[in-house]
């Protein structure tokens, strides 16, 4: 056996190379309340329930009690009727998957089910379509980056089992016209799901603070289900989300039961069977600790930070806000005098992680910020770092991709790539480091602008193929690592 202290020391050493999850400087992937005591409560709850199993609520009734209370908190936030119900899932993707699966299984009369989505819908819905055999009818958004309700209504037909809108969309941070989408769906007897994974726990407080928020909750007639993540703006530990339904009938197709085998009767409310009770306990503990007033205070701090960031961006030469945010997500565009990917690199060099977004449908690459409450205390530094990063990016000039590399990429068929093609793509992208034997020759460069520029010129299918190849080569076993 390896000494406990040594194992924990190894964990700390490895974690030092990760993005920071506290301090408000990581503006994607993590959501930080900035309250150490709240974080500690969540972690202690996760640890205390790590060995429990959510497979059978009769075996661990405390998990059922916490789930019902957490769902109730969310339903009160989202104007739900008394009939509404919900389920705790492992994250936003599982909530979205289950929303699609339930919609499909509620319509056994439809042989080739379809769902109508805006092109800004989260990729989780395309994943659900792939898994569950549901065709996506993708409708381009309007010039305001919101779903085109009229065009989506026209795409609904007798095969449609679900219409989806976002509150807000991840890429642009705006709320789709949910009232119009829900009305169109309801008129055809179709379910309407609102993906509020990232906005569901903060937009209700935005409205209470007097901010203008387009209607999107269960108060909108025709909204049949909503997904909302507690690991985002509920500031709970990673690993929980909620899928909420207007009534039990809407949730029932989500369940899976099977008794025709010699073992126990399987009954699942989610895609998982065995699941640790730790994340649920962590979410319950954090929401109980913060409470309604705590979340209102954190929302006020977060939106104050959003407003200041928007003002700074609009005043910064070379930058602009792509679209005024409805929530906590800010999308920054550049005017060509500086390169978005280089700005991201320069921000990283100054201790800030901001997320690059590729070009799409005529929109040039952008910079994404998910603002959380902890960022508010560091705004002065953010402002300075952003100004310096833009200046450095302008001085460096645009990132150029070699014409021969572009031609090489364009000549390949992403559906028929060989291992040799993959290796050539990885080498061309700068994702191969010949001295990095521990990772099979793969290595991320210190600066990602060149890699992102190459990915940006590739088609979406080619980009997917390249990144799948890269991930496949990264995820290789380390033999003989079983300790001593």
- Rg computed from alpha carbons, rounded to a whole number of angstroms: 23 Å
Cα separation of the termini: 5 Å
Provide the residue-averaged pLDDT: 94
According to CATH, the homologous superfamily of the largest domain is Type I PLP-dependent aspartate aminotransferase-like (Major domain)
* CATH architectural group of the largest domain: 3-Layer(aba) Sandwich
Proportion of residues in β-strands: 5-15%
Helix content: 40-55%
**Largest beta-sheet details:** 7 strands, mixed
Order of strands, widest sheet? 1-7-6-5-4-2-3
Q: Output the CATH class name of the largest domain.
A: Alpha Beta
What CATH calls the topology of the largest domain is Aspartate Aminotransferase, domain 2
State the low-pLDDT regions, or none: 434-439
What's the shape? globular
Which structural class matches the secondary elements?
Answer: alpha/beta
Please count the beta strands (DSSP E, at least 2 residues each). Answer: 13
């Amino acid at each position: 056996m390896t000494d406990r202290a040594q194992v924990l020391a190894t964990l700390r050493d490895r974690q030092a190379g990760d993005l920071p999850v506290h301090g408000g400087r990581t503006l994607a992937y993590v959501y930080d309340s900035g309250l150490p005591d709240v974080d500690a409560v969540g972690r202690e709850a996760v640890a205390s329930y790590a060995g429990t199993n959510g497979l059978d609520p009769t075996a661990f009734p405390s998990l059922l009690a916490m789930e019902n209370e957490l769902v109730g908190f969310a339903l009160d936030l989202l104007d739900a009727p008394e009939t509404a119900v919900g389920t705790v899932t492992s994250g936003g993707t599982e909530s979205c998957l289950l929303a699609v699966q339930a919609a499909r299984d509620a319509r056994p009369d439809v042989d080739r089910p379809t769902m109508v989505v805006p092109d800004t819908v989260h990729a989780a819905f395309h994943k659900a379509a792939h898994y569950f055999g549901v065709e996506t009818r993708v409708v381009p958004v309007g010039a305001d980056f919101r779903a085109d309700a009229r065009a989506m209504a026209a795409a609904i037909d007798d095969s449609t089992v679900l219409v989806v809108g976002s509150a807000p969309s991840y890429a642009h941070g705006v709320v789709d016209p949910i009232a119009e989408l829900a009305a169109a769906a309801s008129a055809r007897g179709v379910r309407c799901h609102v993906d509020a994974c990232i906005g569901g726990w903060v937009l209700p407080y935005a409205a209470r603070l007097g901010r203008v928020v387009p209607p999107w909750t269960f108060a909108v007639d025709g909204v049949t289900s909503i997904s909302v993540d507690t690991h985002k703006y509920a500031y709970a530990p990673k690993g929980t989300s909620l899928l909420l339904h207007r009534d039990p009938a809407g949730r029932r197709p989500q369940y899976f039961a099977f008794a025709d085998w010699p073992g126990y009767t399987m009954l699942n409310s989610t895609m998982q069977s065995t699941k640790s009770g730790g994340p649920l306990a962590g979410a319950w503990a954090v929401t109980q600790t913060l409470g309604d007033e705590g979340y209102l205070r954190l929302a006020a701090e977060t939106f104050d930070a959003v407003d200041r960031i928007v003002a700074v961006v609009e005043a910064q030469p070379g930058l602009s806000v792509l679209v005024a945010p409805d929530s906590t997500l800010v999308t920054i565009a550049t005017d060509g005098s500086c390169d978005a990917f280089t700005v991201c690199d320069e921000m990283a060099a100054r201790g800030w992680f901001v997320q690059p977004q590729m070009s799409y449908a005529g929109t040039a690459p952008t910079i994404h910020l998910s603002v959380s409450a902890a960022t508010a205390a560091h705004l002065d530094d953010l402002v300075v770092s952003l100004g310096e990063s833009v200046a450095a990016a302008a001085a460096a000039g645009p990132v150029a991709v070699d014409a021969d590399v572009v031609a090489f990429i364009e000549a390949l068929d992403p559906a028929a790539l060989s291992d040799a093609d993959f290796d050539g793509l990885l080498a061309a992208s700068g994702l191969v480091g010949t001295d990095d034997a521990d990772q099979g020759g793969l290595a991320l460069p210190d600066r990602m602008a060149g890699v992102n520029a190459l990915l940006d010129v590739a088609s979406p299918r080619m980009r997917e193929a390249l990144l799948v190849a890269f991930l496949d080569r990264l995820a290789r076993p380390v033999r003989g690592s079983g300790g001593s």
